[in-house]
Write a structure and sequence with these properties.
Helices cover about 40% and strands about 10% of the residues. By secondary structure, it is an alpha+beta fold. The chain has 3 domains: about 50 residues, Alpha-Beta Complex (Molybdopterin biosynthesis moea protein, domain 2), CATH 3.90.105; about 220 residues, Hypothetical protein af1432 (Orthogonal Bundle), CATH 1.10.3210.10; about 80 residues, no CATH class. The chain is globular and about 65 Å long. Bound molecules: fe (ii) ion (2 copies). One fe (ii) ion binds next to α4. The site of one fe (ii) ion (FE2) has 4 residues, from loops.
Length: about 375
């Protein structure tokens, strides 16, 4: 699986994931080859990136914490509630509660799955998918903090509703392509207060802890956050968890002003905020769930081999199992040859570099030029 920009989409490439539009309608099913019409549609809907099946790793399946169907349903609910709030309607909290329960159930079930890739979002829809992803990441952190079901459910609901106040931010500011000016930034930074004001009207149906996640998720442990400059234990634990999930999701998502960071880059940035921006202990637990070199990533090893990650190791996240696609002599190895390096066992070997998208594309081109598959077929025939 390889992430490319829409402008890099070519005839015959196959999508590695089903692609849906903002209404949740299927645009392109997994495995269907691109034709002129699909490429035109992908450009029209403004999708920032997509996953394609790489000929070098077509058999590698990326694990997911929550099923795609659940993600879509929840994303649609968040979008519907934002539209409703803008039109002065009430939030249907029963539906949110139901969805938070589903996420908690799925995350508990898949608790051993590490955090892999984000969903792909259309720029203007960033906020909706972001709320869902933040919720999933926060819930997983809660699971590994040994929260009971009631706590997990409160945390999940709070994280899902954390950016509710953004419904009151003008769409021109919310979806602006480019950096905000100081006036716009001040308005944007009011969304925790807006969210608090909206959600506290539901105090009969909603725990105030949930409401405070929306109010406090931009506070920082060193007291330099907003809106109130709260520090450390003054910030509720649910909000401290949500703030970590929120920033990680933002860093690893494509934004209008920059492309998504790779997990190992985001990992470093998060680590740098330990104790100042983020709670040290919670951050430690969160970072243990990140697949630093996720399944499907192409890596170069210190011995010169290039491979694709096929399995991550929870106890040693920097030592995954890698299937070699190019050997030391710079010759391609067929997937069938099953040449693997388990870095957990071979301790003299380590990842020296993660290949960029451009480098993987180059590799695929060479692979295609060599007509490796055809050659193999000829040999076996
Ligand atoms: Fe926020
Ligand atoms: Fe957020």
């Amino acid at each position: 699986m390889q992430r490319i920009t829409v402008s890099e989409a070519k005839l015959g490439m196959k999508s590695a994931r089903s692609i849906y539009n903002a209404d949740g309608r299927l645009l392109l099913a997994e495995g269907v080859p691109f034709n002129d019409y699909y490429i035109k549609r992908l450009n029209e809907i403004g999708l920032p990136a997509l996953y394609i099946q790489s000929p070098l790793s077509a058999d590698v399946k990326v694990p997911q914490l929550v099923q795609e169907e659940t993600r879509i349903m929840v994303t649609q609910l968040v979008q519907k509630s934002f539209d409703g709030l803008r039109a002065g309607k009430r939030v249907d909290l029963d539906q949110f509660k139901e969805m938070a329960k589903s996420i908690v159930d799925e995350v508990i079930q898949n608790r051993h799955t590490m955090i892999h890739l984000n969903d792909i979002r259309i720029h203007d829809d960033y906020t909706f998918g972001h709320c869902v992803n933040t919720c999933i990441l926060a819930t997983l952190t809660g699971v590994w903090m040994d929260y009971n079901e009631k706590e997990l459910y409160e945390l999940s609901l709070g994280a899902l509703l954390h950016d509710t106040g953004k419904a009151l931010i003008h769409k021109d500011i919310l979806n602006k392509r480019g950096q905000l000016n100081p006036k716009e930034m001040t308005e944007m930074q009011r969304h925790p207060e807006y969210g608090f004001d909206i959600l506290r009207r539901y105090s009969q149906e909603l725990s105030m802890l949930v409401v405070h996640v929306a109010y406090q998720h931009h506070e920082k442990c060193d007291g330099k956050g907003y809106p109130r400059g709260l520090a450390r234990e003054e910030i509720h634990e649910y909000a401290r968890i949500t703030s970590i999930a929120d920033v990680y999701d933002a860093l690893t998502s494509d934004r209008s002003y920059r492309s998504a960071m790779l997990p190992h880059e985001a990992y470093e940035i998060m680590q740098a905020g330990s104790g100042t921006q983020f709670d040290t202990e919670i951050l430690k637990i969160f970072l243990q769930q990140i697949a630093v070199y996720p399944v499907g990533a192409f890596v170069e090893l210190n011995n010169g081999e290039i491979g694709v990650v096929i399995q991550v190791n929870r106890n040693m996240p920097t030592r995954p199992k890698v299937r070699i696609v190019m050997n030391v002599a710079k010759q391609f190895c067929s997937p069938e040859s099953n040449q693997e390096q388990d870095l957990h066992e071979n301790l003299t070997c380590f990842v020296s570099k993660v290949l960029s998208r451009a480098e993987v594309a180059k590799l695929e081109k060479r692979f295609a030029l060599q007509g490796f598959t055809a050659e193999l077929q000829e040999q076996s025939g």
